[in-house]
Design goal:
The complex is a heterotrimer of chains A (267), B (562) and C (254). Chain A is an alpha+beta fold and 267 residues long. Chain A has 2 domains: 28-50 and 85-117; 123-259, Sandwich (Immunoglobulin-like). Helix content of chain A is 42%, strand content 24%. Chain A contains 4 helices and 12 strands, in the order H-H-H-E-E-E-E-E-E-E-E-E-E-E-E-H. In chain A, helix 2 runs antiparallel to helix 3 (83-116). Chain A is elongated, with a radius of gyration of 27 Å. The relative contact order of chain A is 0.14. Chain B has 562 residues and is mainly alpha-helical. Chain B has one domain (31-525): Cytochrome c oxidase-like, subunit I domain (Cytochrome C Oxidase, Chain A, Up-down Bundle). Chain B contains 20 helices and no strands. Chain B has helices at 21-25, 30-60, 68-71, 81-118, 126-144, 163-166, 171-198, 211-243, 256-290, 297-311, 327-339, 341-355, 364-381, 383-387, 389-395, 399-423, 425-429, 436-461, 478-508, 522-525. The longest helix of chain B is centred in the N-terminal third of the chain and has 38 residues, at 81-118. Chain B starts with 20 loop residues before the first helix and ends in a 37-residue tail after the last helix. Chain C has 254 residues and is mainly alpha-helical. Classes of the chains: A alpha+beta (267), B mainly alpha (562), C mainly alpha (254). Chains in contact: A-B, B-C. Chains A and B meet through helix 1, helix 2, helix 3, strand 9 and strand 11 of A and helix 4, helix 9, helix 10, helix 11 and helix 12 of B. Bound molecules: heme-A (2 copies), dinuclear copper ion and copper (II) ion (CU). Dinuclear copper ion is lined by residues 132, 184, 219, 221-223, 227, 230 of chain A.
């Protein structure tokens, strides 16, 4: 286990190196992505919650200390509110809370629209989930399976390994997803996205990498014994590297098909 | 359990002195039924807590610990680590919610307190009450069978199909656990709604009831309306699995999301079945220990409690945000979910206001209540980002969810439960459970819970998935899991101290007088310290201006009249 | 509006062994028997569990009713409210089943599929009509019985209850006949979405008819019946009747 962890960190370093290579910014379309949107809104929500929390928390703590009994027989002296006070203590907080709620709802909904609107010029990858495997099918027919995951096997002298979901940087990617058995979920941790995959419905998710990097996709809907083993890496590489990789994969697949056919003929 | 006699005029009967097993097992008395509910739910807490320890041990490091199998009783090592973990987690979630908290709050607390608080001799249908108790116990037994049968359910407390249908494990026992506990709850609802409506002491108007009675009333309305939906959802699961029907089978015209909708249509309101009585207990403890009237009682009741009741049925979709619901229902339920902060906020204000200008003494229960002021904020406010559909697409199914609901449920509501036991301990046993041991248990548990659940927030935001026994793809989370595990051992130590303290105090704690907290509520002022059969030595009537919280006279002097 | 709640202060702890007995019986009869038959296919155990559970439940109920008749209630005159509240939860179970049915039906319509789906034989539309008449008649006969009861004519009350039971059984028999017929035509619960809804809704309703009939049998068995029991059984029976209108119109005539 420890051994694997080291490799993982090593590959992170490689990713960091790639990320710092300059000169690609020009190709990246300037559209809002779910990932950045999430981080921004999260930041704002967090501030909002901390403010409310600290306000109420410190007031509570103050009361707990301030109103300790001076003498064991003493009783509290809270006054009964008259009708106007009671109403005010209802309506004013209601209005404040509602205002906050609506603000959050509006922010959240704007981001939601970004998350669900697929930008033009995107690339579609088909995902089939099954216990306990993701299979990806690229537009040109190349297939990748997460069970081939093998971080010891370095493909074509790049940072890409077997079983990785490889995507080009700067291209919006749409995953069209179905399940062949139970419910799974496509969790793109670092892209701040996830969506369930289930039998009987087609679901989708879109995301885009701005820089080359390595992250994980995990199955996050409980699907049985090996639920936690259902994951693989998402590797975002430059357009050039992606094209090379895809071509090689295609070639490999053709080769495999040929040998397969040849074997059948021999028999 | 003998009768204490401090300051009590006379023993009210011959047959209720001394312990008679028959009078406990066959009892139809609400107080004894309440105590047996308490025993059952604490038993569920201990076993489910033990499972939690197993879960924590397994998650401490990446990779297998090889220990989780022992927790689910698989000493021969027939199960894989994944299966054993799933069985343990199933039991933990299902038992904690269905067998510990709901029965603890609506079984123990409601049973013990409601008739006493409204001045009634018992509930309306005592035999149905006993039936409800025993069905609950049978439900616990069915759940415990998981540890004996070869194919323990592993479908999580949510039991989503198709997995729960295609798995080879015993889904039927999950369904029957839900049926038994659910039916027990519906019977309880019938009983308590009738009791509260018809059996209040003459003179007691709706706005003179204890807050706890109000919250129980609301909680049982929720149970009555929503439990049947859950029962139907799991029954369809049973039919699909064993009778071949197609409700959840998309290949034959069914739909997997039907289950999720039905399930959460109940299980969201269920969290308020937990939250409301927990809040009710908080009000009782705080008002009693601060010797103050409830701040803005009517708004807390009609805006807070009834407000939650009104909104709670229209928010279930927030559990299906990542399951692909259409936009029109999503935006509606996102707003209603966010709006729950309004009634809860009103209740929080009224809670804080009850302390304002109070005169607070710190009993053990009050210490739990003070901690809860902070826990309800952490747990409740973290629900807010979850309510926003665009935020949940990342946070859902991560340990951020765990942290959210452990804070509000495993800490806030559970602490309320413990506070209730401490606060009414003298009522139940005639003895006090206060003291150094009680304090130590409280501080240790509190420390442990903070260590356990804060790390889950952090790794949750970074994406630690739920229901993962192994997280080899995220080795960077290991230190956080480590802290959480240490925390859980501290909780278990604290819990052990607490149970020890209860047992010790019940046997030879110091005896107390009839009204140790100087409360104004009927269960303290009008009964013997241990209420006998029929509860009240003389029938109770209350006057028009009586409330359970009138600690001070108009001139600010203590109110001592009865 | 507090009714005169039991002002009597009894000086002993109330006990009854009926609830515990029933609960144990239910545990044996439902989860264990089911698991034995369907999960583990251990018929023998299934028969043993059912054989133990059923008498326990019956004994419990008999004892319960005896006590209900002889012992004073904590508060009298609220059982009808109790059953009313209970019926709310029953309505919600039916609603959930209907929700499942509607959802399947509407989504199949949206997908442009046929309804009823392939594999559904011709379903007799006359029989449910007759069944409706029978059930309505039984509600009326029971009502007649109740009137007699209030006039004090216990004998004639029992006669009407007996007729009600016969009507109920006829209704139940019709359901069984229909099921038998349809299953022979290859229409079983797993055939398609419609059969799933059909059997679960009519079956769930039929189980309610059965419970009603059993409670009437208990009414006949006991010499002294109390007023509340008569009323509660009646409310329940009318409820079963009304639900049938929904089941029939939704399942057969939509
Ligand atoms: C007692 C139990 C309990 C309670 C009370 C709550 C309370 C809330 N919960 Fe929680 N929840 C659970 C138990 C509970 N929850 C459980 C068990 C799950 C997971 C189930 C599973 O998947 O297994 C869950 C999951 C869950 C989800 C689904 C996440 C997912 O799976 O993707 C969501 C989403 O909306 C949510 C939201 C909320 C909200 C908005 C509240 C609100 O009621 C909170 C309201 C309180 C406050 C807001 C704080 C006090 C208010 C103020 C100080 C006023 C001012 C505040 C504002 C204006 C914001 N919860
Ligand atoms: C009331 C509810 C409640 C409570 C109190 C708890 C209490 C605890 N929970 Fe639980 N938890 C849930 C409700 C609750 N939980 C739910 C609903 C889930 C989701 C399940 C799902 O995903 O389906 C969950 C899931 C869950 C997970 C997620 C696992 C995963 O998804 O992979 C974890 C992990 O850390 C965890 C930990 C704990 C811990 C450490 C405690 C501790 O507080 C427990 C402390 C221990 C004790 C209180 C027991 C004390 C033991 C002794 C004293 C020893 C003596 C024992 C005997 C004599 C028998 N819980
Ligand atoms: Cu696939 Cu979890
Ligand atoms: Cu919810």
């Amino acid at each position: 286990m420890k051994h694997k962890a080291h490799r993982f960190f090593a590959s992170m370093l490689v990713a960091a190196f790639f990320a710092s290579t300059p000169g690609m910014a020009a190709e990246i379309p300037n559209i809002p992505t779910p990932t950045e949107g999430w981080n921004t809104v999260w930041h704002e929500v967090l501030i909002d919650l901390w403010v409310i929390g600290i306000l109420f928390g410190s007031l509570g703590a103050y009361f707990l200390v301030k109103y300790r009994a001076k003498d064991p027989d003493a009783v509290g002296s809270g006054k009964k509110l008259d009708f106007r006070q009671a109403l005010a203590w209802c309506l004013i907080p209601c209005a404040l809370f509602l205002a906050d709620d609506f603000m959050l709802a509006a922010k959240g909904w704007t981001l939601w629209n970004t998350q669900r609107t697929i930008p033009a010029g995107s690339m579609e990858i088909k995902v089939t989930a099954s216990q306990w495997n993701f299979t990806y099918e690229y537009p040109n027919g190349v297939e990748i399976s997460s069970t081939d995951r093998d971080t010891d096997k370095n493909l074509f002298g790049t940072e890409i390994m077997d079983g990785d979901l490889v995507i080009p940087v700067g291209k919006p990617i749409v995953m069209r997803m179905i399940s062949s058995d139970v419910i799974h979920s496509f969790g793109l941790t670092d892209y701040r996205l996830k969506e369930d995959i289930m039998p009987g419905r087609v679901t989708y998710i879109w995301f885009m990498a701005r820089k080359p990097n390595i992250s994980q996709v995990v199955c996050v809907e409980f699907c049985g014994t090996n639920h936690s083993g259902m994951y693989n890496r998402v590797v975002a590489v430059s357009k050039a590297n992606y094209d090379t990789w895809l071509a090689k994969k295609k070639q490999e697949a053709t080769l495999r098909r040929r040998t397969y056919a040849a074997n059948i003929i021999k028999r | 359990m003998t009768v204490a006699t401090d300051g009590i005029p006379e023993d009210t009967g011959s047959s209720h002195g001394g312990f008679k097993l028959k009078e406990w097992i066959f009892t139809t008395d609400h107080k004894r039924i309440g105590i047996m509910y308490l025993i059952g739910s604490i038993a569920a807490l201990l076993v489910a807590g033990l499972m939690a320890m197993g879960i924590r041990i397994e998650q401490t490091y990446v990779g297998e610990s090889g220990l989780i199998q022992y927790f689910v009783g698989d000493f021969a090592g027939n199960m894989t680590t994944g299966d054993a973990y799933n069985a343990a987690l199933y039991f933990h979630g299902a038992a904690m919610i269905l067998a510990f908290l709901i029965p603890g709050l609506t079984g123990f607390a409601a049973n013990y307190l409601v008739p006493l608080m409204i001045g009634a001799p018992d509930v309306a249908f005592p035999r149905i009450n006993a039936l409800s108790l025993w069905l609950f116990w049978m439900g616990i037994l069915v759940a415990l069978l998981s540890f004996i049968i070869p194919d323990a359910p592993d479908i999580m407390w949510t039991g989503y199909p198709p997995y729960s249908i295609t798995t080879s494990t015993n889904t039927a026992f999950y369904v029957f656990t839900v049926h038994l506990l659910g039916f027990a709850s519906i019977l309880g609802a019938v009983n308590f709604l009738v009791t509260i409506i018809y059996m209040r002491a003459p003179g007691m108007g709706w706005n003179q009831m204890n807050m706890f009675v109000w919250t129980t009333f609301a909680a049982f309305i929720i149970q009555l309306i929503f439990v049947p939906v859950l029962a139907a959802a799991v029954t369809l699961l049973l039919l699909d699995k064993y009778a071949g029907t197609n409700f959840y089978n998309p290949d034959a015209g069914g739909d997997v999301l039907l289950y999720q909708n039905l399930f959460w249509f109940y299980s969201h309101p269920a969290v308020y079945v937990i939250f409301l009585p927990a809040m009710g207990i908080m009000y009782e403890v705080i008002a009693t220990m601060a010797k103050n009237r409830i701040f803005n009682y009517k708004v807390a009741v009609w805006g807070g409690i009834i407000g939650i009741l009104v909104i709670t049925g229209e928010v279930w979709v927030h559990h299906l945000y990542i399951a692909g619901m259409p936009n029109w229902i999503r935006i509606g339920q996102m707003i209603t979910t966010l709006m729950i902060s309004v009634p809860v906020g009103l209740m929080v204000i009224s809670w804080w206001g009850t302390l304002y200008k109070g005169s607070i003494t710190y009993s053990t229960a009050m210490k739990y209540a003070s901690a809860n002021m902070f826990l309800v904020l952490v747990g409740g406010l973290t629900g807010i980002p979850l309510a926003m559909t665009s935020m949940t697409v990342h946070l859902s199914e991560t340990s951020f969810i765990h942290a959210h609901f452990h804070f509000i449920m495993a800490l806030f509501a559970t602490f309320s439960m413990f506070a209730a036991v401490y606060h009414w301990f003298p009522k139940m046993t005639g003895r006090s459970a206060e003291g150094k041991l009680a304090d130590a248990a409280f501080y240790v548990t509190f420390l442990g819970t903070q260590l356990t659940f804060w790390p889950l927030f952090i790794i949750g935001i970074e994406g630690m998935p739920r229901r993962y026994w192994n997280y080899e793809m995220f080795p960077q989370f290991e230190p956080y899991h480590m802290v959480a595990t240490i925390g859980s051992f501290i909780i278990a130590f604290g819990a052990a101290l607490m149970i020890l303290n209860w047992i010790k105090a019940a046997i030879n704690g110091p005896k107390v007088g009839a009204n140790p907290w100087k409360s104004r509520s009927l269960e303290w002022t009008h009964t013997d310290i241990i209420a006998g059969p029929g509860n009240f030595p003389k029938p109770v009537t209350v006057s028009e201006d009586w409330t359970p919280y009138d600690y001070a006279n108009a001139d600010g002097t203590p109110n001592t009249s009865n | 509006m507090s009714a005169e709640s039991g002002t009597v202060h009894e000086h002993h702890w109330e006990v009854s062994w009926a609830p515990l007995l029933i609960a144990i019986g239910v545990m044996l009869l439902v989860p264990l028997t089911f698991a034995a038959f369907f999960v583990y296919e251990a018929q023998l155990y299934g028969i043993i569990f059912a054989g133990l559970g059923t008498p326990l439940i019956v004994a419990g109920i008999v004892k319960w009713i005896r006590e209900g008749v002889t012992e004073p209630a904590v508060i009298s005159g609220v059982s009808d409210v109790g059953i009313g509240i209970f019926i709310i939860s029953e309505i919600l179970i039916f609603l959930s089943l209907f929700a499942g049915y509607w959802m399947m039906r509407i989504s199949s319509g949206a997908a442009g599929e046929l309804w009823p789906p392939a594999g559904t034989p011709e379903i007799n539309k006359i029989l449910p009509l007759i069944m409706t008449v029978i059930l309505v008649a039984s509600s009326i006969t029971y009502h007649k019985g109740e009137e007699e009861y209030h006039e004090g004519n216990i004998g004639s009350f029992k006669k009407w209850v007996f007729i009600t039971i016969l009507l109920g059984l006829t209704f139940f028999g019709c359901t069984m006949y229909e099921y038998n017929h349809l299953i022979h035509a290859g229409f079983n619960p797993g055939t398609n979405a419609y059969s799933t809804a059909f059997y679960s809704l009519t079956g769930f309703h039929a189980s309610h008819v059965l419970i009603g009939i059993i409670s009437f049998l208990f009414l006949l068995m006991f010499g002294t019946v109390n007023k509340m029991f008569v009323k509660v059984a009646g409310i329940y029976w009318h409820f079963v009747d009304i639900v049938w209108f929904f089941v029939a119109t939704q399942i057969y005539y939509w």
